[in-house]
Design goal:
The chain is mostly helical. The chain has a domain of about 110 residues. It contains 6 helices and no strands. The longest helix has about 50 residues. It is elongated, with a radius of gyration of 39 Å.
Length: about 200
Amino acid sequence: MRILACFGVALLGAATLGVRAVQAQDRGVSSPGTSQSPVQDAPAHALQVSLDHIRERLKQAPEKSLLHDVDLPADFRVEIQEQRKIDEMLSKLDFRSGPAPPGGLYGFEQQRRLFSPSSRPLMQPYAAFNGGQLITLAIEGLIQKYLGGRLIDEIKESARERAEEAARRVVRRDVAAYCASRPDRYQMLLCNPDAR
């Protein structure tokens, strides 16, 4: 819409400059050897532009302007919110280091210095578990690593497909309501997609 408005302004400016150039030619520039202007020397039918014809056309009301829909407000607006949420979450993550240990780096260093593995073996992170419990934890970790990621990916994909279908339904409903409210809906390609 803005492009059409800019094009219309440029076209109007070009027409104005053309009219002024023709008016300047009508006034004529007298050269030292001649007393008549070149425009007066040329026959009337040889001129490409007639000022009377231009004035007559400018006085007439325009039939239907190409820019008649320029002032209409936009009917739809698309805004993607999920990408913004993902970007906000990713901006908070720090990828320069690995995962922080429980208690933070300073807490982990303090734990390591105060309770060394050789002097206090029962104060180590997994010392509270026996052999069977450690195997169970290892199996659970492997299941979570190899199957949990796929399961989470499938759940995310399913949720995304449901959200896309819901968005399509909302758009179809809004387009139908918009087309029902427009008197020129039979001329609009949006309301008649089969008319292509």
